Amino acid sequence: MQALLYKRALTMQAQTGSRETAFTYAVSAAGVVNAISRACREGELSSCGCSRTARPKDLPRDWLWGGCGDNVEYGYRFAKEFVDAKEREKNYVRGSEEQARMLMNLQNNEAGRRVRQMLTLSSFSEADLEGLKTCWLQLADFRKVGDLLKEKYDSAAAMRISRKGKLELVNNRFNMPTQEDLVYVDPSPDYCLRNETTGSLGTQGRLCNKTSEGMDGCELMCCGRGYDQFKSVQVERCHCKFHWCCYVKCKKCTEIVDQYVCK
Fold first, then answer.
1. How confident is the prediction along the chain (263 residues), in pLDDT tens digits per residue?
2. Which segments of 57-145 are extended strands (E)?
3. Do 130 and 7 reside in the same domain of the chain?
4. Which of 139, 141, 132 minimizes the C-alpha distance to 66?
């Protein structure tokens, strides 16, 4: 699901400040934190090294705090300076749509960085060294970042620019977003139909899965327009055998399969 949102937003982000664009900016910012933090630990950057995070207060006394942890502190600082630079380099008219988009991007960049940092700080690794347990800071799997940002995407807040040049809620009945929440300023376009103005490619002609109830299912992907069925010839390697020494020899198998495309 995260990958689908990301692909959608790549084509949309230049045209509209939608939920999908918010998701893309957050994932991108989190990705920079991830890459730099790991590179510091691996010794690939001369400007940083292992994490210097203080020993967690809840760490058992018989555990040693050491090793070389992912430097998420440096990764966060670098990402904030590097990723936000593009947004801060221009001065937009106060209260303009351009300023609204800039503030939206900065908010979502920060949300991505904080989500990556938050999941990292709760993840530790241990190793048994001569009977001693050593613990160090380690990045959580990036899939968890995507899952949490998907939740943020679902609850993203609709915002607008005020005359004072600040983002404000469209609906005051909701709480103001925190620094970990996603925001958007434009409604999402109709992804079902092709629209070059908004960058939507539509779903006509897309392959779909007839039996799936998920995003790739024909009922959902084809937006109720129905789908066509056709047969396709697929050639795959099969009956592979290892021969000593040292190569693998396979046969080619041909199979006729049913495929479905959206009308």
1. 444 544 454 444 456 899 999 999 999 999 999 999 999 989 999 999 988 788 777 777 777 777 788 899 999 999 999 999 989 888 899 999 999 999 999 999 999 999 998 887 655 555 555 556 777 778 888 999 999 999 999 999 999 999 999 999 999 898 999 999 999 999 988 888 888 777 778 899 999 999 998 888 999 999 999 999 999 999 999 999 888 877 888 999 999 999 999 99
2. 63-65, 124-129, 132-137
3. yes
4. 132
**Do 96 and 211 lie in a common domain?**
no
State pTM to two decimals.
0.74
Say yes or no: 50 and 94 in one domain.
Answer: yes
**Two tokens at 48?**
């940083």
Is residue 136 within 8 Å of residue 40, measured between CB atoms?
no
- Of the candidates 2, 119, 20, 132, which has an alpha carbon nearest to the alpha carbon of residue 10? 20
Range of the domain at 215: 207-262
Same domain as 126, residue 222: no
163 and 226, same domain (yes or no): no
Report the C-alpha gap between 120 and 98 in whole angstroms.
Answer: 33
